Amino acid sequence: MSVGPTLLLVLLGLPLAAAVAVALLGRGRAEAARVIALFVVLINLGLTVALVANAAPKLAARELPADGRPLSFAPIMVPGAVSKDPASEDSHRTKWELIPLDFTPQKPGVPRPTNAPAVRFYLGVDGINLWLVALTSLLMVSAVLASWEAITERAHEYYAWLLVLATGMTGVFLAFDIILFYVFFELTLIPLYFLVGVWGGSGRREAARKLFLYTLAGSLITLIGALVVVGATASEKKPATFEIPELVRRVHDMSREAHGTLAAAEQKQRLEAPPPRDIDDPDAPPPPGSDIAQQSRQRYHDLMTLQAFVFLTLCVGFAVKVPLVPVHTWLPDAYAEAPLPITFLLSAVLAKMGTYGILRLAIPLAPDAALSLGLPVLGSLGVLGIVYGAFCAFGQTDLRRLLAYSSVSHLGFCVLGLVTVTVAGLTGGLLHMVNHGLATGLLFLLIGMLADRYGGNREGPAFSGLAAKFPTMALLVMLGSLASVGLPGLNSFVSEVLMLAGVVASDARPGDGRGWTLAVGAAAGIVLGAWYTMTMLRNVFFGPLREPGGGGPRPDLNGRELVAALPLAVFCVVLGLFPTPVLKSVERDIAVVATPAAAQPPAVAKTPVP
Amino acid sequence: VPTTDPVIVSLWDVFGLARSEFILLVEACILFLGATFRTVPRSMWSGVAVAGLFIALLDALVLPQPQVPLSTVGPLLFDPLARLSRVLALALGVVLVFASDTDELEDRVAPEYLGCLLLAVAGMSLVGRANDLVVLYLALELISIPTYVMLALPRPDAGAQEATVKYFLLSVLSSAMLLFGLSYLYGLAGTTNVTALGEALVRGLDSGGPSLPAVTLIGVAMVVAGLGFKVTAVPFHFYAPDVYQGAPITPVAFLAVLPKLAGIFALVRLLGYTGPVPAVQAFDPHLMILLWIMAAITMTLGNVLALLQDNLQRILAYSSIAHAGYMLIGLGAATQLAPRAATEPVFGVEAVLFYLIAYAAMTLGAFGVLQILDTPQRRVETVDDLAGLYRTEPVLALFMSLFLFSLIGMPLTAGFVGKFMLFYSAVRVSAGDSPFGLFPLLALLGAVNAAVAAYYYLRLVGVMYFREALEPVKPTRSVGGWVALGACAGLTLALGVLPKPVLQATRNAAMPAPAPAVEEVAASDPQR
Fold first, then answer.
1. Could you tell me how far CA B387 lies from the centroid of its own chain?
2. Interface of A with B in 240-279 (CB under 8 A)
């Protein structure tokens, strides 16, 4: 009996239970609240380490099928699995129903069919979500430590909401039911709304409302996209399913079938076509077989329309969450007004929910549309975001806003990598989610700690030469900056190179010729990123010492702050030097997403692993 | 199990068919008589009313009910939909009686008010069970007439009077339209029996006859218009904001829920979604387009106008209009899906019924909070009056947030499961590959609307939690109010987390009745 499923349930349930307990503590027990919160996130971190240790070798050991095209996602450690036998296909599915939709009475003794239409409590782990769950657990510890002294008012509520948020974020990554995914996706909004609205800066109410409404509007459209997929794949023989792996399988089947029949019909028509007729003769009978070809062309066209609709609606919600450029306007407010630990989580984890959604849902559930619309629409928006975000970041004086815009820039890159739908691009995009979480998370934490030392002042021009005063902090900021710039040897380098390789590789696909323009834009973005990051670093930490509010003794990072920041820095280096375990464990699941593009030369997938 | 004669010959037979409702009528008479004793306190009358409702519930749930062997002749039905509407009406009655325990209702008027409430509950129960145009009409009037009294009774001031008169005039107009429509349907089919009427219309089409004459459409359109008033569908919604704002909260909470539920049940019955032969087929595609347009306009107008309001009761009025629009999505989708209901996990009608229950819980809850907060010493009328509620009344603020989040449709609340079902039924209407059917677009519009609605609901949450009060609220002491509130909150959460029992009940209620075998019909038909 494996402990995996229980691990997942505890990972989700413990913070929620603790949140209720903390909320019931009442006012004036701030100390107890934060100790409990810290205790819980540390337990969760421990559980996550156990999870990774348990799952990563299993995931890495999975074999790719001979043709390199696995049919669908196959999560392991599924709680309530239909079959206990890990070799069975049913071990990847759950029988726990959340919203049952089928009430046909069963004959006595006949078990309820496991494919009855129902929204299920379907959790699991695979290569794609394992590392994001790990990132969440790790960063939650930092978030609690960063809140330690910053939050004193209504502290019990604060920690309760923070723990609810932890459950929501973990749930989004673990969910394998499309509605359950949506449920967790939305559930993160309520804690965020209160966390920003109660404990934020002066413009907090406006910021909280914007954050909530933008995300809700986007995700409701995503919900419709999800329902359309479910509705379109259901038939009398195949009852409606909300399981993501099954949906992916059905969508890919439909796509393959439509391509196949179209090709066959056209082939047939070409073979049987009579000698060329007078095209001006309208009364001539149509060539034999043309109605079949016409039909299959129509069906193919319908399917492509469906996929385009699904792809675009699904992406709306994710684009808001990331955010991509035209729908990013909630971000500067939210990032600047939220309390620091929340800004930290927003950029390091919550933004990843958007890119994760693109990877887990949008591309696999609309594979053909992802190929035809991905790069032209999302890729272009991504590049726009990279460049626009970089220029905006350069123009900011507020350090937190600077980092906020740099997030827009980096995540645009991430989206660009994903929508290439190449193995390299997808792997790079996934890795970049983790890397960006670590590097930018580290920077947000440190900038927050810096601002704490100057009464919340985070105006860049007010500072200069702080390296002399806070050597440890300066060192860590420099590490974070270099990591986010993409210095070889640090984590972002690996993912950025992979993504660029993916963009270039997408050029090799027939019909795609725009990849290189996007690659040029993205590469320009990297240069711009180095420009504003290094400028910030030089102005704030080097040069003659200048600080607002006069000098005076101010301590360097204390033990608590060091514990919050150091693990992130360490992982920035570790993932830069040894990315292989991560890359290995995601290979099979990335192959699922990249299936339609499987025709590319295998060399591309293997290129730049240092 | 006693069976009645298929042809009802005497009033006595009807009495047996409507036992639970008669219990309520007797109870109402006791309350009206009791109103002459001026010294008895309000709580005692509430007790009497609740006792009566429980007796009726006991009768409805435990005692055997007479069977109607042939649904094409009986005036009242006992099918699952009828059972659901009856239990729902009685349960709603219990909650409403508890919610009436406020100082708005003086001891002097309490028995009359409660008596009227019981009559309306009996009316709603009968609406869901009616199988005859005349019975249906009378049952609807049994709701409307007590409502006029209830609106005017608690507070005899100009505002309440204006609201009552407005409601009265428009309600009478809508009844006239409904009657007009019913007369056309009767003229077409030659029968007032709803089941037989539906069958006649469908068979008329099936037998290769010409498509139904245009008068059918006039009839159906008039029926939808008349009932549209009850469900506050645009353009029959004009009374709602004014009446909700002008009348006292206690009857408004009643008005927001019970007539709307009855209206939807009447639509489901009359348009024949659940008959053995779904009569909706006969009205295709006109009814579908009519409902589509009404749904789109109702939810959009309701939500957009709610954005502009500052008065809490007006906000809730427009919100109730918007929610009627969501329900119409399901009814519209069901016009297409009802014929293949057996193979569709969600075909629209059960989604609407589920949403009705969810709507009742969350709307009654939201009104219940206002009812407790609003006192003559400290009015709670506008959004700003809620400021800082979190500090002074944390539990009420928490309840209110729960109801508001449910109205938005956030997961783990009833509102989410309801919207999920409605939108899914809409998406299923185009089962083909193209997503650009009418109904998926309506679902998309619904989603956009839900996001718009979030703006004004969230505004209330923000005011309660992020702002400080200028003057602390002085809530009334109302044990019954709290009981009702607790019940609504419990239901809102339960429907969101464990919706299975209610889903099953609504699904059973919505499934079209199995068609009786032909021989059986022939054997029991006295005409042959």
1. 31
2. 240
Of B417, B436, B459, Cβ closest to residue A99: B417
B428 touches chain A (CB under 8 A): yes
Name the strand (E) or helix (H) holding A99.
Answer: strand A97-100
Residues of A in contact with B424 (CB under 8 A): 227, 230-231
Tokens of A190: 């309520």
pLDDT digits (tens, 9 = 90+) for A479-521: 999 998 888 888 889 999 999 888 888 877 766 566 778 888 8
pLDDT tens-place string over residues B310-347? 999 999 999 999 999 999 999 999 988 888 888 888 88
For residues B306 and A513, give the distance between their C-alpha atoms in angstroms, rounded to a whole number: 49
Written as six digits, the tokens of B268 are: 């489901």
Size of chain B in residues: 528
Q: Is any Cβ of chain B less than 8 angstroms from the Cβ of A369?
A: no
Q: How far apart are CA A363 and CA A360, in angstroms?
A: 7
Contacts of B382 (CB under 8 A, 6+ apart): B310, B311, B312
Closest by Cα among A384, A407, A222 to A319 = A222
DSSP state of A506: H
Task: Give the percent of chain A with pLDDT over 90.
Answer: 34
C-alpha distances out from residue B227 to A191, A328, B122, B236, Å:
41, 44, 18, 9
Omega prior to B376 cis, within 30 of 0? no
Number of C-beta neighbours around residue A608 at 10 A:
14
Q: How many CB pairs under 8 A join A and B?
A: 124
Over residues A450-479, mean pLDDT: 84
3-class DSSP state for residue A6?
Answer: helix
| Phi, psi dihedral angles at A198 (to 5 degrees) | -95, -45
**ipTM tops 0.85:** yes
Distance of CA B131 to CAs A244, B78, B200, B275, B283, Å?
44, 10, 14, 10, 19
Alpha-carbon distance values, B384 to A196, B309, B353, B379 (Å): 21, 12, 34, 11
Q: What is the CA B313 to chain-centroid distance, rounded?
A: 19
List the one residue out of B130, B357, B178, B365 whose CA is nearest residue B261.
Answer: B357
Q: B50: burial class by Cβ within 10 Å (0-12, 13-18, 19+)? A: middle
Q: Which of A566, A547, A578 is nearest to A475 (CA)?
A: A566
Whether A306 sits inside 8 A of B431 (CB atoms) is: no
Please identify which residue in the block is written with the tokens 């050597």.
A471
Residue B1 has pLDDT above 50, yes or no: no
Q: Are B239 and B267 in contact (CB under 8 A)?
A: no
Q: Identify the bridge partners of residue A119 per DSSP, sorted by sequence position.
A: A99
Q: What is the pLDDT of residues A538-549, one digit of tens each?
A: 888 888 888 877
Contact of B389 with chain A, judged by CB distance below 8 Å, is answered with no
DSSP string, A547-594: -TT---------HHHHHHHHHHHHHHHHHHH--HHHHHHHHHHHHHHT
User: How does pLDDT run across B418-460, given as a tens digit for each residue?
Assistant: 999 999 999 888 755 555 688 888 999 999 999 999 999 999 9
pLDDT at position A265: 80
Token digits of residue A87 = 């070799």
Residues of B whose CB is below 8 A from A239: 345
CB–CB of A368/A421 below 8 Å? no
Please, which residues 192-231 of chain A have a Cβ atom closer than 8 Å to chain B?
193-194, 197-198, 204-205, 208-209, 212-213, 216-217, 220-221, 223-224, 227-228, 230-231
- The pLDDT, as a whole number, for residue B515 is 61
Q: Identify the closest residue of chain A to B340 by CA–CA distance.
A: A236
Question: Residue B527 has what pLDDT?
Answer: 45
Q: What is the DSSP letter of A119?
A: E
- The Cα A505–Cα A600 span in angstroms is 8
A321 near B452, Cβ under 8 Å? no
